[in-house]
Amino acid sequence: MDLYEYQGKELFRQVGIPVSDGRLALTSKEARAAAEELGGEVVVKAQVLTGGRGKAGGVKLAATPDEAEAYAQDILGLDIKGHVVKRLWIELASDIAKEYYLSLTFDRGVKKPLFMFTTQGGVEIEQVAAESPDALVRLHVDPLEGFQPWQARRLVYGAGVTDPSEQKQIAKIVGQLYDAFVRFDAMLCEINPLIVTPDGLVKALDSKFTVDDNALHRHPAIAEMRDAEAADPLEALAREKHVTYVKLDGDVGVCGNGAGLTMSTVDLVTFAGGRPANFCDLGGGGSAQGVVDALSVVTSDPQVKAIFFNIFGGITRCDEVARGILQALVEMGLDLPIVVRLDGTNAEEGRRILAEAAPANLHVSPTMLEAAKLAVELAA
Amino acid sequence: MAIIVDDDTRLVVQGLTGSEGRFHGLRNRSYGTNLVAGVTPGKGGQDVEGVPIYHTVADAVSEQGANTAMVFVPAAFAADAVYEAVDAGVGTVICVTEGVPAHDMLRIHTYLHGRGVTLIGPNCPGVLSPGKANVGIMPAEIFTAGNIGLISRSGTLTYQIGHELSQMGLGNSTIVGIGGDPIVGSSFIDVLAKFQADPETEYVVMVGEIGGDEEEKAAAFIEAEVTKPVVAYIAGFTAPPGKTMGHAGAIISGSSGTAEGKKAALEAKGIRVARTPTETAEIVAEIARR
């Protein structure tokens, strides 16, 4: 689960990492009030779960509450890479002398948390890694030993920070960031830029924070931070119905059981010359109601012209799936063409149930490959 | 021989008294797996269809000689269950539970290093050695015994490929579902090494998917260490970046973890990569019948 900048900063604040004072605003009036309350120059920052908002005009410096209100008006509703701005973070402006970069990520390959630190902050870290790899200090932490103070010194000296006060402040923030990473089950904590003000204060000017979905049960307050409106409406509907769904942009709806088989099914539709509309995984259970729920999500996408329903029965029983499909056809009055392929546990029984009912828009295919071709033809 | 589970497996199921644990544990027993005990704290002294229940794994080991544990407890307690099993001295732990927090797995992975314990999973369908033992949730009737080792990050996709192999008259020595999480106990490399050492395994099928770099690492390992023919399949060629595709570990981050990248890394080491599950079985058949 990705957090907004202001949410990540709240978590930073909880572990002691210095951040600027700010307020959340949902309207331009609230932006004005926030600017008045904060006093002085503020930055109006679009809150979106994507990068590049500065270039898109989503960050503006406002000298007065009037300006803050005007900029808020401009930024609210702005489309930044498909994300419409609905929230603003109004923050006291900071003077910037230097921009550094500090992150802690979950290194899947090495299976340890990875610190990255460079004094070349404020730009994309991939760019620094590519252009001046020596400037980027990387350090893994043993997850059982946890963070040790020498590791912060390695980062700070390694990146060439010479000012003693800066060294001290950054080393402290490094430890606090590790604390946040572990305490909140983060997959990523990034501060870019980590700034030094002209009077030598180090603070986090931005935050990128991703929390492990599987750990949200330990963090109810973070789970509540989820912005249901920010998700694709179909993905939000799927979440509500406990269906694993990812929206794609084609016209062949895809339902399967199990993540791997469903990904493979999406691939087959593409290889057959079609464009998958979604990835929809019924999961292991595959009860009749689960089938109905999945079909109701997939068919809520108006782009869908045909559906490929691909089941390999293991624990999932094909007869149960067949009943679910028929139930969905009746309950939802579905008239889109549906290609069904059933194999594995009780597949014959499942096929028999479908053949007996024989609705006109239902096609049963013996193999995945033939089913994919047929679904693509029917969507054309 | 087969790998990981076989005729010598003495299984204890952690969570045998729960509905899922009971269903699958008893299913494994009817397949012929030697299910010797169950563990549920607070229910020691009871039994599940004649299988004795203990409060702790240590009791199951000392009373029944359990050497393999299957974890079927809820995600919030799974890490604790794995630590308990390892501490009790079992050599193999198979964690079926889905949704174990990634940080828990980071710590477990580090803890297990150098302890000589094989952890399979979490978020996996388990391990099946046809004709010998089934530990997990795989529908054993789909697979037949044979000389092909099968390793996969997925469940149903593995059943599909096993089914296609069976239809071509080919069978498996052992099927290992390593799990779909970002960090799992055993990687492709760990299982490839076991198949390389197993005299019953003559060929290996490796079923990967988007996310991480374990397939790429496996490619280098196969070139250096595996003399048996390996055929690979990768799922997720059309997955968009930044989206979790069902499995917590199936996510393309930036430009890393793509199916194209994995295919290229494997092919660069001379490993054939099939485009579909059907083609996977066809390539294996072609090599096996040469």
Question: What keywords describe this structure?
Answer:
heterodimer, A: 380 residues, alpha+beta, Dna Ligase, domain 1, D-amino Acid Aminotransferase, Chain A, domain 1, Rossmann fold, 3 domains, seven-stranded antiparallel beta sheet, six-stranded mixed beta sheet, 13 helices, 25% strand, elongated, B: 290 residues, alpha/beta, 2 domains, seven-stranded mixed beta sheet, 35% helix, globular
Layout of strands and helices, then pairs:
The complex is a heterodimer of chains A (380) and B (290).
Chain A: E1 2-3, H1 5-15, E2 22-25, H2 28-38, E3 42-46, E4 59-62, H3 65-75, E5 79-80, E6 83-84, E7 88-92, E8 98-107, E9 112-118, H4 125-131, E10 137-140, H5 149-158, H6 164-183, E11 186-196, E12 202-204, E13 208-211, H7 220-223, H8 233-240, E14 244-247, E15 252-256, H9 259-271, E16 278-281, H10 288-298, E17 306-313, H11 318-332, E18 338-344, H12 347-357, E19 362-364, H13 368-379
Parallel strand pairs in A: 15-16, 15-17, 17-18, 18-19
Antiparallel strand pairs in A: 1-13, 2-7, 3-4, 3-7, 5-6, 8-9, 8-11, 9-10, 11-12, 11-13, 14-16
Helix pairs in contact in A: 1-6, 2-3, 5-6, 8-10, 10-11, 11-12
Chain B: E1 11-14, H1 19-31, E2 35-39, E3 47-48, E4 51-54, H2 57-64, E5 68-71, H3 75-88, E6 92-95, H4 102-112, E7 118-120, E8 126-129, E9 133-136, E10 145-152, H5 156-167, E11 172-177, H6 188-197, E12 203-209, H7 214-225, E13 230-235, H8 259-268, E14 272-274, H9 277-288
Give a structural overview.
The complex is a heterodimer of chains A (380) and B (290). Chain A is of the alpha+beta class and 380 residues long. Chain A has three domains: 21-92, 2-Layer Sandwich (Dna Ligase, domain 1), CATH 3.30.1490; 98-223, D-amino Acid Aminotransferase, Chain A, domain 1, CATH 3.30.470.20; 231-379, Succinyl-CoA synthetase domains (Rossmann fold, 3-Layer(aba) Sandwich), CATH 3.40.50.261. In chain A, 38% of the residues lie in helices and 25% in strands. Chain A is built from 13 helices and 19 strands. In chain A, the strands form four sheets. In chain A, strands 1, 8, 9, 10, 11, 12 and 13 form a seven-stranded antiparallel β-sheet that branches. In chain A, helix 11 (318-332) links the parallel strand 17 (306-313) and strand 18. Chain B is α/β, with parallel strands linked by helices. Chain B has two domains: 1-123, NAD(P)-binding Rossmann-like Domain (Rossmann fold, 3-Layer(aba) Sandwich); 143-290, Succinyl-CoA synthetase domains (Rossmann fold), CATH 3.40.50. Chain B has helices at 19-31, 57-64, 75-88, 102-112, 156-167, 188-197, 214-225, 259-268, 277-288; strands at 11-14, 35-39, 47-48, 51-54, 68-71, 92-95, 118-120, 126-129, 133-136, 145-152, 172-177, 203-209, 230-235, 272-274. In chain B, strands 3-4-2-1-5-6-7 form a seven-stranded mixed β-sheet, with helices on both faces. Chain B has a seven-stranded mixed β-sheet with strand order 9-8-11-10-12-13-14, sandwiched between helices. In chain B, helix 7 (214-225) packs parallel to helix 8 (259-268). Chain B starts with 10 loop residues before the first strand and ends with a helix. The model of chain B has no long low-confidence stretch (mean pLDDT 95).
